[in-house]
Specification:
Elements lengths: L4 E2 L1 H17 L41 E6 L6 H7 L4 H8 L15 E7 L2 E8 L4 E7 L4 E7 L3 E10 L4 H8 L3 H10 L15 E11 L2 E15 L2 E9 L5 E4 L19 E4 L2 E5 L6 E4 L2 E4 L5 E3 L4 E9 L3 E8 L3 E11 L8 E2 L4 E5 L9 E8 L2 E3 L17 H27 L1
Keywords: Hydrolase, Metal-binding, Metalloprotease, Protease, Zinc
InterPro entries: Cell_wall_metabolism_enzyme, Csd3_N2, Dup_hybrid_motif, M23ase_b-sheet_dom
Subcellular location: Cell envelope
Length: 429
């Protein structure tokens, strides 16, 4: 199995840590690092054998074949591009009938088309949709054949660390972690940490993740392979693992699923306008009334997520709650969502929903002073604080699969540990 190569700074870090381990005797039993990890090999695929190079500029003069390159402009159609480059509508029709020809139905400005032709006859059309994907159509004995060519980027394992002083996003930006991986980091730990309520200055995170390179250029980011989040002094660690059934997910180093039956918060990265409070002055009625839930203030239209799998007990509207949804999660648990601007697609009484599914959107219907979600969590009919209630766990790695899990995740766990030791050492200097 091929594994991504390591970023240079990660190799230096690991090498230093191995020396540190050798001198200090850190670790015991099977977790002791006694030698360098198994060789790490880059995963980089070149053009498939016999495929046309989408970036070829010209062939040898002996072939007398020329190349014309055209970029899709606003308002272009494939027919207009063929016409302005002098190629026949008949060839276009034949190409569009190939097995991958349907990809030419929707073309977008900036996409690249390359025509290889000889004495006015089209030999090969290459349609490049991005750096990694091209569709190649070659003239055959009868018409054209079509092929999709996908180049695989090189995956480089790297890391980052940051301490939060105001917000997770600002801390991530300082550390160079892109927004999409910041969101993924929050999603990994969302069952343990309410990223709206629980984040405090001084919290920190360590992330081991993949950078994607093509022809030596950074073009994107892959998966988070391992991460640790320290929230109010409590450490949460997660490693990525693909189960025997093919499900890619995150688990603790002991194989316990990071997922739980309920999300801590049904919206992402909003500010809290009112917390769980049994003696709260109602903002509209101006009377002291128990506030048996949490209000998440967020822009109108912010998606609202089902906190867990269940069935919609009621999706309706009244003068106080506005548009609201009540979801039953088995016999014990009920969640309520009030003041929605509208329901999600297909949401109605009796409908089954899954955890994380969009069930509605933030609004200010009913007795609400501004756009927000009022969220309640009930256990056996009793209102509980959604922030602190003990949540049932989801399925973990099967006992018989644990040896495979340990072997598959060990390298990434050790790399994360090496990184953390390096950060602690540097902070102590």
């Amino acid at each position: 199995m091929q594994i991504p190569r390591l970023h240079r700074r990660l190799i230096v870090l690991l090498g230093g840590f191995l020396i540190f381990v050798g001198l200090s005797g850190l670790g015991d039993g099977s977790d002791t690092i006694t030698s360098t990890p198994e060789p790490v090999v880059a995963t980089f695929k070149t053009d498939p054998q016999g495929a046309i190079d989408p970036d070829a500029k010209e062939l040898t003069s002996e072939s007398a074949t020329s190349e014309t390159v055209d970029m899709v402009k606003a308002g272009d159609s494939l027919a207009s591009i063929f016409n302005r480059n002098g190629f026949s509508a008949k060839d276009l029709h034949t190409i569009s009938q190939t097995n991958v020809g349907k990809q030419l139905k929707d073309i977008f400005p900036g996409h690249r088309l390359s025509f290889l032709h000889h004495e006015g006859q089209l030999k090969t059309l290459t349609y490049k949709t991005d750096r990694l994907t091209s569709y190649v159509f070659q003239r055959a004995d009868k018409g054209f054949s079509g092929e999709k060519i996908e180049f695989q980027p090189e995956k480089v394992v790297t890391y980052t660390h940051s301490t939060i002083d105001s917000s997770l996003f600002l801390a991530s930006q300082r550390a160079g972690l892109p927004d999409n991986l910041t969101m993924r980091l929050a999603q990994i730990f969302q069952w343990d940490i309410d990223f709206v309520l629980d984040i405090r200055p001084g919290d920190e995170f360590f992330v081991l993740y993949e950078e994607l390179y093509f022809e030596g250029e950074l073009i994107g980011y892959g998966d988070i392979l391992a991460a640790e989040f320290v929230n109010q002094g409590k450490r949460y660690e997660a490693v990525q693992y693909v189960t025997e059934t093919g499900r890619k997910d995150y688990f603790t180093p002991a194989g316990v699923s990071m997922r739980k039956a309920f999300l801590r918060a049904p919206v992402e990265f909003s500010r809290i306008s009112s917390r769980f409070n049994m003696r709260r002055l109602h903002p509209v009625r101006k009377t002291v009334r128990p506030h048996r839930g949490i209000d998440y203030a967020a822009p109108r239209g912010t998606p609202i997520l089902a906190a867990g799998d269940g069935r919609i007990q009621k999706a309706s509207r009244n003068s106080a709650n506005g548009n609201y949804i009540i979801i039953s999660h088995g016999q014990q648990f009920v969640t309520k969502y009030l003041h929605l601007s509208k329901f999600g697609r297909g949401i109605k009484t009796g409908k089954k929903v899954t955890q994380g599914q969009i069930i509605g959107y933030v609004g200010s219907t009913g007795l609400a002073t501004g756009p927000h979600l009022h969220y309640e969590f009930l256990v056996n009919g009793v209102h509980m604080n959604p922030r602190t209630v003990a949540l049932p766990k989801a399925q973990s790695v099967a006992q018989r699969e644990l040896p495979l899990f340990a072997k598959a995740t060990r390298q990434h766990s050790l790399l994360l540990k090496a990184f953390q030791q390096q950060v602690v050492y540097m902070a102590a200097q």
